[in-house]
Amino acid sequence: MSNQMMLDELANAVQTFDGEKVMESAKKALSAGIDPSLIIEQGIAKGLRIVGKKFEDGELFLMHLVAAEPSQKAIKELLEPEIKKRKGERKSAGKVVLGTVTGDIHDIGKNIVGAMLIAAGFDVHDLGKDVPVKDFVKKAQEENASIIGASALLSTSLPVQAEIVKAFKAANMRDRVKLIFGGAPCTQEWVKEIGGDGYAESTVEAVNVIKQLMGIS
């Protein structure tokens, strides 16, 4: 089986919500000598992007997004440790804290961004979904993070992004932490209005915006 076929097999396993198959395919790809960053980007993240697009198009539902979450287990337990081991004492591209804001449980886009950032050499601290504002601040302090990425997929949870900006100002951290926002109801104009640093319409754009904010080409 070629490398591309193995990566396609992994992407397909993600789309069929088969957690065991995802782990099995990821291990097979590693054993074949495929770079773990490539396994994330062209295997798991590719599959998650397709799932996310089908959800946006109304072909899949919330239960499917929940079913896709085991894909993160392969990243956290198998691929991320392997990336760190292979790169040894690698110089981190930066520390990023991600989360879906409180009142919102949609997180597949955030999960894709996290996977792609890990593949790009970032240290990612994923707070999950329905994350209170104070937790973003607390984690940024604990990890000395440079970037906060907060997604809101519901219009009712959009105002929480504004609260995050206010919270970082109140904590006197606004000058050293960049805040990037995204999600279906989020716009460039909204981010500018609330005083954020970056807006991303897609998962690929989110990674590019974060790289730009970190001064990485």
Structure characterization notes:
This protein is α/β, with parallel strands linked by helices and 217 residues long. The chain has two domains: 1-90, Methyltransferase, Methionine Synthase (B12-binding Domains), Chain A, domain 1; 91-217, Rossmann fold (3-Layer(aba) Sandwich), CATH 3.40.50.280. It has ten helices and five strands. It has helices at residues 3-15, 19-31, 36-56, 62-67, 71-87, 108-119, 133-143, 159-170, 188-194, 203-213; strands at residues 95-100, 123-126, 147-151, 178-182, 198-200. The protein has a five-stranded parallel β-sheet with strand order 2-1-3-4-5, with helices on both faces. Helix 5 packs parallel to helix 6, helix 6 (108-119) crosses helix 10 (203-213) and helix 7 (133-143) packs across helix 8 (159-170). It is globular and about 55 Å long. 45% of the residues are buried.
The total beta strand count reads 5
Which structural class matches the secondary elements?
alpha/beta
Query: Strand-and-helix sequence, N→C?
Result: HHHHHEHEHEHEHEH
Query: Spatial order of the strands in the main sheet?
Result: 2-1-3-4-5
The CATH topology of the largest domain corresponds to Rossmann fold
Q: How helical, in percent, are the residues?
A: 55-70%
Domain module tally: 2
Distance between the termini: 34 Å
Instruction: State the name of the first-level CATH class of the largest domain.
Output: Alpha Beta
Taking all Cα atoms into account, the compactness measure Rg is 17 Å
The mean pLDDT is 89
Q: Which residues sit in consecutive blocks of at least 5 with pLDDT less than 50?
A: none
CATH architecture of the largest domain: 3-Layer(aba) Sandwich
